[in-house]
């Protein structure tokens, strides 16, 4: 039957999505058991179904209505973009072996696309807009066939209905799906996946018709690509595509009401494409974008629509200023047909609930709101907006008191930190020119051509995790803990020497996470017990909370790195996480410019580098995998961002002596978009993810005239595949076409923490063998 497009539903507030990994990371655990063969697909499916049912019940209990589509249905086994790619049957032909006779993709085929298997390459992975979430990049070419390849949205809607909940299916929209895709390898030069829009829209029409047959009142289509100015497609073309797509979809008779949403920034000139389309709802990010002006283009189109107003920050964990949020809703009131309070983004960017935190201080807790608490804020705002401000005044008073408490806390603004920042001069951000210090480093370090190394971490084995857990629980004392960690470090150093790596690492056995470890050793941070968020697939991170001015009380990496160096004649890298990445992978204070906070972190790292040098460490790696991640989606904001992000890295590293070789690392981001900034970091060696893209990055490196050491990754550590020596030689051959041999390093894409030694040892052995073979080709001693 055809759904009547009335605009009904969504009363009482909504959220654009909810954490999908389970409150206790049940999905992560089930996925990893399934991949290792310890459970069958049925048990995985049962775990996923229980997570979904629990989330729907939870959202209802927190105040969302059960029968008006206020509850989103947005579950994924791995990634929402992969789900949309499967939904429209657009996986590359290399995955056809997992397609059943009825045209559906098997579960193992879905995971093969995500992770790779045997000799089948997975889809490329990169960052989702300006977040730390990773999505799988669709591969779309002129010959890609589109057809409905799954019934997931309809199945999830029917499943929720069986539990008594009328939910709102959430799907990546057609324009965003194509805009985020890359052309297939055989596509002609200049081909844009967006050119296939008219071929894709009938599949979306079919999906919408299927939902209409189930009487789904609403469907949410994520069109966040429309806020970004960083995508390959020309922006006017992107906006025109959106206008066309929603004219077509809006004109369909047999469909649910459509809510087109765009998060992470303002729609700006793209607003008319959605506001003037014949659809029923538009969701706006009013945290990053703000309320559009009454005379802005397209605003008049909102007057007959439901406007879902993203006034609660879905991308950070600070308690909302409810008075300011309500003011935005009131400002929007005359512009919209109906206003619905909401989160600015999906809440899958934040942890489930503060109820699972027992060790955060009461004052800090009062400043915070995780996903469940944000839903309560949304419901509170909805009641106030609908005329019951008196009934929720206590919540408004509590929020105001929390804001005042935070502003007045002594650790938020420390005079000695402010004084040190104020005293900085240009000299604190500069080193001796690279050409001069490179000669010093070459003489001091004595490294071979095409030196081999790893990015830092080695597998976090059950034994390592057990050691840390025993120490945390008080089951072993510090002396026993240190002895066990040193044993793990010694094993890693010995293994690297046996494999034949040229520059070694200590393996990071003492580190739970590349950011949390630093947060635990800096003042101005706090850490959670269960504040997990999904990064990709089963990979979850526990972002630290950066709430105050940052201070390093004492050295904390020197002991471990020095011990590793004492075990070998080869160079061991000191391993630090850079200021931008520490900010990107934490929940960062929002009461001062990020550049100020970054410089505070940089000074703490600068002190640590000085202590590493004093201990005799000649190579220090300062990882910045997130420098592209935080790049603003609007080009007008780039100059300021690049100034402070590059500046904070240079502040951290510019105190190093000429003989100290500074490395940095970037992964899973569009390196080419920030290559000038990467050059500005002035690192001696930069390693970067490159394997899944088959060295696409080296063309950008060559075109930019990048003239420092560089290590494009040759081993994809996010896949269980083990590359062969031949695979790696092929990648190095490509790299050497663009990078001078004296500048090329050989390394994996990223740290090895998440892999198993059964995979790592043969992969690194092949990597070393491939480097030696390349040296022979170049006529130097292997």
Category from helices, strands and their pairing: alpha/beta
Helix percentage: 25-40%
Mean pLDDT across all amino acids? 95
Strand content: 5-15%
Cα-atom Rg, whole angstroms? 26 Å
Termini separation comes to 71 Å
Low-pLDDT ranges? none
Shape summary: globular
Across the major sheet, the strand order is 1-5-7-8-9-10-11
Q: What is the subunit arrangement here?
A: single chain
E-strand count:
22
- Counting H and I runs of at least 4 residues, what is the number of helices? 26
Q: Main sheet, how many strands, which sense, barrel?
A: 7 strands, parallel
Description:
The protein has 26 helices and 22 strands. The strands form six sheets. It has a seven-stranded parallel sheet with strand order 1-5-7-8-9-10-11. Helix 25 (725-736) crosses helix 26. The chain is globular and about 70 Å long. The model has no long low-confidence stretch (mean pLDDT 95).
Keywords, separated by commas or semicolons:
seven-stranded parallel beta sheet, 782 residues, six-stranded parallel beta sheet, 39% helix, alpha/beta, 22 strands, single chain
Short description:
This protein is α/β, with parallel strands linked by helices and 782 residues long. A hairpin with a 2-residue loop joins strand 14 and strand 15 (539-541).
